[in-house]
């Protein structure tokens, strides 16, 4: 069965965001959604600096003393700003609470779990926060809701204080989402399709060919000419080691770093 939120990847891609679809996402859920009224923001609370270490947990749920069946969100937002599509159906992410007069959290709110340690000192990379705002804006626009129907789990949850996430100022977040929805937000940096200095095309997962082999040789992965998930992971590390945005996309800045090694 394909659930109702099958439009998620298309809407996010149209907003210029990077999207990765997990296997089986379209038929994953705790049942069908009700009327979608808003978007609920969470953080994962994971201290790891890996890109999306909680992905399997969000898909399958958690065990232990407080088990909760998955999926635990419809969307996972990685540290590099990639949206992982987890489920098109209802997810166990809200629990008891109310926001905007809506108390049916799991049935009425799309849940986004963003990778972050959830501590006062934890850094939100600019590109991740930008993707967070733009993704929420795109979703709200699609369902015909205003920025006021974006809430933090900490705002929705009852009794108040039951949840701390996400650990950033939600009123300011909503203001930025509103600006994006009105078209008055900051212009998103677009990665050029061609690097004028090196003459190399921007490449990402799914690409093939000799330029992919060149990338693989420099990032330290087997050079088979296929830009797969393993190559993307090595590209991210290469970028992070050089202070570049670790998004796994080989654009002008990454090409310059690669060509400069030759």
TrEMBL record:
Q: Where is the N-acetylmuramoyl-L-alanine amidase domain?
A: 25-167
Query: What are the GO BP annotations of this UniProt entry?
Result: peptidoglycan catabolic process
* A GO term for molecular function: N-acetylmuramoyl-L-alanine amidase activity
Which InterPro entries does this one have? Amidase/PGRP_sf, Amidase_domain, Peptidoglycan-bd-like, PGBD-like_sf, PGBDSf
Xref: Pfam families: Amidase_2, PG_binding_1
**Domain of life of the source:** Bacteria
Q: Can you say what this protein is called?
A: N-acetylmuramoyl-L-alanine amidase
């Amino acid at each position: 069965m394909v659930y109702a939120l099958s439009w998620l990847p298309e809407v996010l891609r149209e907003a210029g965001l990077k999207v990765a679809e997990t296997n089986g996402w379209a038929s994953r859920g705790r049942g069908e959604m009700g009327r979608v009224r808003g978007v609920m923001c969470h953080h994962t609370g994971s201290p790891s600096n890996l890109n999306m270490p909680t992905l399997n947990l969000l898909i399958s749920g958690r065990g232990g003393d407080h088990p909760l069946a998955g999926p635990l969100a419809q969307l996972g937002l990685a540290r590099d700003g990639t949206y992982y599509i987890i489920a098109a159906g209802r997810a166990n992410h809200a629990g008891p609470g109310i926001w905007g007069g809506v108390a049916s959290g799991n049935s009425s709110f799309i849940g986004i779990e963003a990778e972050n340690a959830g501590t006062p000192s934890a850094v939100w990379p600019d590109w991740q926060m930008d993707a967070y705002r733009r993704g929420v804006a795109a979703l709200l626009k699609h369902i015909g809701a205003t920025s006021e129907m974006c809430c933090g789990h900490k705002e929705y949850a009852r009794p108040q204080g039951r949840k701390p996430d996400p650990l950033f100022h939600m009123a300011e977040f909503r203001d930025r989402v509103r600006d994006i929805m009105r078209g008055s937000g900051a212009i998103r940096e677009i990665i050029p399709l061609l690097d004028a200095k090196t003459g190399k095309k921007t490449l990402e997962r799914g690409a093939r060919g000799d330029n992919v082999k060149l990338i693989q040789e420099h990032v330290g992965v087997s050079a088979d000419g296929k830009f797969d998930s393993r190559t993307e992971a090595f590209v991210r590390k290469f970028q992070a080691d050089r202070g570049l945005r670790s998004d796994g996309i080989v654009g002008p800045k990454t090409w310059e770093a690669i060509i400069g090694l030759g």
